[in-house]
Fold this protein.
Amino acid sequence: QRSSHRGASAQPTRHRQLAHTTAAMGQGECTGCGSSDPAMDTVRLTAYVVGVTGGTLLHAADGSNTSLKHQEEEDCAHRAPQELHLREEEELRERSLAVELRRSFSEANEQLSLERERTEAQARIERRMREEAELQRQVAETAARRAEDETKRPAMEQARKEAQRKVDLFLSARGFITISLPRTSCFKASYPLHVAVQENSADIISALLLCGADKMVKNSSGRVPLEVAEQLNKKGSHQAVLSALA
């Protein structure tokens, strides 16, 4: 009984759907069963059902696309702050790295400058020390020469006095007025050194030179005392004179 009741109650519902379907298809009034075409009614009904179903599917698809697009927009909106934060962190790291590089470069330059200044200062100190050492050496040499001169001065004075005594005797005995004036005889001029060379007297030559005689003076023949000594030297006879005039 319940089964037949459900069948009976379902039929009015189907009749209402069919009536709604017929109205939607443009047939609001029934023309009677005798004038209807069952095949065409079936096609129209099927087309309507398919249309309604397809519209529902299309609407569902559009809703799904809208939902996906909305989800993508939400994902994009969610990622944007994160990407911005990542870019800001990357820029901050790059700025920090640039600052660190500049600081390292500045410190390296400062270190090089300090090293260069220390090297130059050390070079100046070493140069000053060398100059002071050289000055001290020169002062010491000068002091040593002065001390040596002071030591030798009495002996040198004595030797000069002795040489002057010899020269005076030689000049007086040979008719010379001074060691720098020649003696003339028969239009020939000779100097004390030339005469001492002719006499082969190395001792008088040394005394004359010590008292200031010029060993480059020329006689009337145009010869210096050394040339005269070389001319007179026979088998080393005037070697001592040559040595004194050298």
Observations:
- The radius of gyration is 71 Å.
- The helical segments are 2-24, 38-174, 192-198, 202-210, 225-232, 239-245.
- The first helix runs from residue 2 to 24.
- The first strand starts at residue 183 and ends at 185.
